[in-house]
Amino acid sequence: MTGHVSLLTLSGTQIKGYHLSQLIGSGAYGAVYRGTCGSDVIALKVSHREHDLAIEAKALQLLNSSDVSPKIFFSHHDGIYHTLGLQLLGPDLETLREKGSSKPFDRHTLVKFMYQAIACLDYLSEENGELLLV
Q1: pLDDT tens, 85-109?
Q2: Bridge partners for 15 per DSSP
Q3: Which of 3, 6, 12, 134 is found 20 to 30 A from 78 (Cα to Cα)?
Q4: d(CA 42, CA 20)
């Protein structure tokens, strides 16, 4: 657990030329920071779990030509940290739920979520069937 806690205290550090300015979120695999380098702003995922991040990087690289996932810019090993540089997208579902003061999503929003999920599954089944075996 100590390793996970250390991942949550990286704000202000530099990884691969990016300044980690804000913790966006964290979970089982590590932490995601807002990373800036000049005018470039990305999401920088940091983990101690090399194998899991390598699988995620491979999946995202297969999806890189689609509009169904964030673009991956790099996969990097920096000391004890394994990192992925990703396109910074909007807020996650948890953040959207918190802003909605516990009200359920309206029908229009749910339809948009479902459309995106179906588009992703459609892309996976038509273009990259091998990804389903990863």
Answers
A1: 999 988 877 777 777 766 788 899 8
A2: 18
A3: 134
A4: 10
Domains and CATH numbers, the chain: 2-133 (1.10.510.10)
Under 8 Å between Cβ of 74 and 84: yes
Please report, in range form, the residues annotated as the binding site for ATP: 45
Pairing type for strands 72-78 and 31-37 reads: unpaired
User: CB under 8 Å, gap of 24 or more: what pairs does 96-100 form?
Assistant: none
Strands (E), 1-134: 14-15, 18-26, 31-37, 40-47, 72-78, 81-87
Locate 86 and state its tokens.
């990703």
Annotated binding site: 45
Beta bridge partners of 99: none
Nearest in space to 85 (alpha carbons), one of 47, 35, 23, 13 = 35
Q: In this predicted model, what pLDDT tens digit does every residue of 24-34 receive, in sequence order?
A: 988 888 999 99
Computed on alpha carbons and rounded to an integer, the radius of gyration of the chain in Å comes to 16
